[in-house]
Amino acid sequence: MNPANSGDINIVETIFNAVAEGIIVVAPDQRISSANTAAHQMFGYPPGHLMGEPLNILIPMKYHKAHVGYVDGFMNQSAKRSMGKGRELYGQRKDGSQFPLEAGLNPFELNGKRYVMAIVIDISERVEQQQQILELNEQLEDKIKERTQELDEAVKVLRKEVQKRIEAEAKTKEALLKERELGELKTKFLSLVSHEFKTPLSGILSSATLISKYKTSEQQDKRDKHLNTIKSKVKYLNNILNDFLSIERLETGKVSYNHSQFPLSKVLNEVVYDANTLLKEGQRINYPENLEEVELIFDEKILELVLSNLVGNAVKYSGEGTHVTIEGQVEDEFLTLDIKDQGIGIPLEDQKHIFNRYFRAENALLTQGTGIGLNIVKTHLENLGGSISFVSKPGEGSVFTIKIPTRANHGA
Ligand code: ADP
Hints:
Number of helices: 8
Distance between the termini: 116 Å
Bound molecules: adenosine-5'-diphosphate
Number of strands: 13
Strand content: 15-25%
Shape: rod-shaped
Radius of gyration: 56 Å
């Protein structure tokens, strides 16, 4: 400094010491040639104690090396600038503690020597505030993450709930449908019973009434005829009831099968014997000769039910003087049986519905029936590893074919 007079010196010095920023003048040998009150306070030195000290005492140890380079470089460039842009600067107090600072460097020349006047601001508070803002931001981000996660969880729970409701609704619908089907079954049963039972019952009643009129022993023939009528009609009614029971059992999964070993001829004989009682004038059933030796492991009762349905239908849906022929063979542990008739056949447009429960073809409506038999037959056969199919020509006749394993799995 080169003040013009002592009055000026005082004013300059007063200002020098009054400014809030620390002012430190550094000589070319990097010693402090001047420092104001604020600089002393900032670095924790008693007034005047910084004079002549090396600048390094204000700089934390770890920056010393780099700092010497900076200052030298700066001295040679001699342009005003602020220090530490983009990087953090630290000062070191007398007690060794450190604080962040910002410094503006102003080079000047005095008596041919280059000095630097550093204007230093303690930015501890600002840094602390920034730190707090950063922390607050982090907390905020954490909170947002937490909330997002909570929301995600809530959405997941809601989705599951919605899925559950949809499933429950589907189940309720299914249950309602089952209930409705059951209701329909009951209604159908009642109407069938009242319709299908009336004719055979009135037949039974008239046969019974007639029997009572034939009193003499010569009239035994007539009594037998009416007794046979009664027997066959009772059997017919019994079959309808059995069909309904079968449906109920199949529907509720209560059906269980009993496998045993038996000769096929035993079942065929029983079926043909019963069907013979239903024959019309001139009808006959041709019995297969080649199957006498066939032994089966199967559910005997079910095979009887299947065959009596098919042979019964063949007789029922054929006219007087026609033949029903049973043919078959065993191949690869499967028995195939064809039941052929020369009856009314099944109209082409009805053929695809023929195994549907209660379905009856257009041309069968004048004949007694319930439309249950084939449906039950198919279900049982498929449950037991077998199958059923048919070929039919309206007006010419039908062939129903069943295929069953000869040694069915006992567990089936
Ligand atoms: P139902 O004979 O009591 O009506 P089924 O389930 O046994 O019931 O048969 C369903 C329908 O299939 C019959 O109503 C009939 O239309 C047709 N059908 C079955 N077998 C024959 C057959 N052999 N010839 C002509 N139609 C038949």
